[in-house]
Write a structure and sequence with these properties.
334 residues, mainly alpha, Multidrug-efflux Transporter Regulator, Chain: A, Domain 2, two-stranded antiparallel ribbon
Length: 334
């Protein structure tokens, strides 16, 4: 079979077949009387073998070894090809992500594109200072994909850079909230914590709705951050979690401050006072927790809190009795 027929049947160009011949990879078995290359069926079969191995990513040199070296074993080469392919896929995926993020910003011109690329590179820098400057500049007029900010915020370990990223996200409005909500579902506790910390700093209704949902999150740390933030926003749903925090002694001072802020609203005063008193009288609450609950009553206005404090002046726990007496003295003097 002449070279043109082989090229048509195999899909390999005549030029490539001549290249194979020059490399000694596949030489036609014969020649016609006119000197043209003439391929046998075995030659054509070898061409198909070559193309099959090339489609796996083998170089022509590796193909030659695979076909001609009797001692050649494919396992090591295949493992290497798998590694190279994974590296290539990773690189291509990163490129695709970068392009998609640039496209999402809808750059007006190449200057915007170059600026976005520079910011993305800075966010991925090993230098904390560069990452922080990138976060701060992204909050200005510089275009920046919110997705990149969220990814950086969820993975940042430096506290200063993390603060700058949360500030930038807060300035971006609710664009990143859906991605931050996904972060709350991460299997990594640190990522969940960074997600809720970022949501807390976004002061809008959608963020508040996410925080309400987070109160019942399986991760208790997420629920506590949500409760403290909701307390400052005057949301009554946070009260039970805040009281639990006082009892458990976890950020209990902040929780008591949040309860105090909520109790300044007349509609919530009695609810909060009753909640604290109910837990104080519960037999399973340990003495240290009862003391913290007593202290929390100090800044809760109203008659329910005052009557409870009066009763506590006679408590068997001397520390509680003295604390209640002191608090009542201050309240009566006001």
């Amino acid at each position: 079979m002449l070279i043109g027929d082989v090229a048509q049947r195999s899909g390999v160009s005549a030029r490539m077949l001549r290249h194979y011949d020059s490399l000694g990879l596949v030489r036609p078995t014969g020649r016609t009387n006119a000197g043209y290359r003439e391929y046998s069926s075995e030659d054509i079969q070898r061409i198909f073998h070559i193309e099959s191995l090339r489609c796996l990513g083998l170089s022509l040199r590796e193909v030659s070894r695979a076909l001609d070296d009797p001692g050649f074993t494919p396992s090591e080469l295949v493992d290497d090809l798998i590694r190279q392919t994974r590296e290539r896929i990773t690189a291509e995926t990163e490129l695709l992500t970068r392009l998609r993020r640039i496209d999402a910003v809808e750059p007006a011109g190449w200057e915007d594109v170059l600026q976005i690329v520079a910011l993305l590179q800075a966010l991925g820098s090993k230098s904390a200072g560069k990452r922080q400057r990138a976060a701060l500049s992204s909050a200005d007029d510089a275009p920046m994909p919110v997705e990149a900010l969220v990814e950086a915020a969820l993975n940042e370990t430096d506290p200063n850079v993390a603060g700058a990223l949360r500030w930038a996200l807060a300035r971006s409005g609710d664009d990143g909230l859906a991605l931050l909500a996904e972060g709350l579902g991460s299997p990594a506790a640190e990522v969940r914590k960074r997600a809720i910390q970022s949501i807390v700093e976004i002061p809008n209704g959608q963020a508040t709705a996410l925080l309400k949902d987070a109160l019942t999150h399986p991760d208790i740390v997420v629920g506590r951050y949500a409760a403290l933030a909701l307390g400052t926003r005057g949301i009554a749903e946070a009260v039970p979690t805040l009281i639990d925090m006082v009892i458990e002694g976890t950020n209990d001072v902040d929780a008591a401050d949040a309860l105090s802020a909520l109790a300044s609203r007349p509609a919530l005063t009695d609810q909060i006072a009753t909640g604290l008193v109910d837990r104080l009288t519960h037999g399973s609450v340990e003495p240290p927790a009862r003391r913290r609950l007593t202290q929390a009553l100090a800044d809760i206005p109203g008659t329910i809190a005052s009557r409870a404090l009066a009763d506590l002046t006679h408590d068997e726990d001397r520390t509680i009795a003295l604390t209640a007496t002191y608090i009542l003295g201050i309240r009566n003097a006001q």
